[in-house]
Amino acid sequence: YISVTGVQTCALPIFVDNSRNTFGGKWSQRIGEQFVLGAGLDHRSFDDNRARRQITSNLATLQGEWKPMARVSAMARREQNFGDADPTYPNQTVLTGSYLLSPGSKLFVTQRLSDKPIVPISGIAGAELMSPLSTRETAIGIQSAVSSNTDVTSRMQLDRGLNGTDAFALVGTRTDRKSTRLNSSHTDISRMPSSA
What we know:
Layout: E1 2-10, E2 18-31, E3 35-48, E4 53-69, E5 72-82, E6 92-102, E7 105-114, E8 136-147, E9 150-159, E10 166-175
Antiparallel strand pairs: 1-2, 2-3, 3-4, 4-5, 5-6, 6-7, 7-8, 8-9, 9-10
C-alpha cells in the first residue's frame, strides 16, 4: 500500500496569521498474518506571518504493528524530524495497545513520549488552558464506530505521565472519508487542543 498526499492548513487571523503546506508519502506492507510495517516522509513548510518566520521540516515516520490475536493489537511509531521541527510535529515515540470489544468498539491505551510539546497553529493554546505543554501523555479510552466512516472516542488523558498533575476527560468525533480505522491499532495523538 502506497499513498501520496498534499494538505494546506491556515489558522484564523483572529488569533494568529500562519499557514502550513504539507506534501508527503506513506508506504505500508503486511508481513504474514500478524505484522504490518509502515514508513512515511512528510515535507512541511510552516509560515508564521506575525513572527516573520518560516520553518521547513522533513518528518520521517517508522511504524510497526503486531496483531497476535484477532482482538488484540499493539503498535509502535517513531516520528523523527530531519532539520527543524514544525511546532505541531515534534520528534516523538507513540506506543499503543488495543482490544476489540465488539465489531464496532475497541478499548485502547496510548503512551506518547516527545522531546517537545505539540503546539497547535491555531493560536488558542497560548494560555495553556486548551493545550497543556506536555511531552508525556497517557490516554485510556474507547473508540466506537457510529457509521462506516465516523468514530466517536471518549478517553481519559493524563499529561506529564502517570504521576502528572493534569488529567482530562475528552470526547470527540472523527470522520474519515476513506473508512473507519477500528480494524487497526491506529489511535491518533491529537495535534489539536485537548478539548477536541
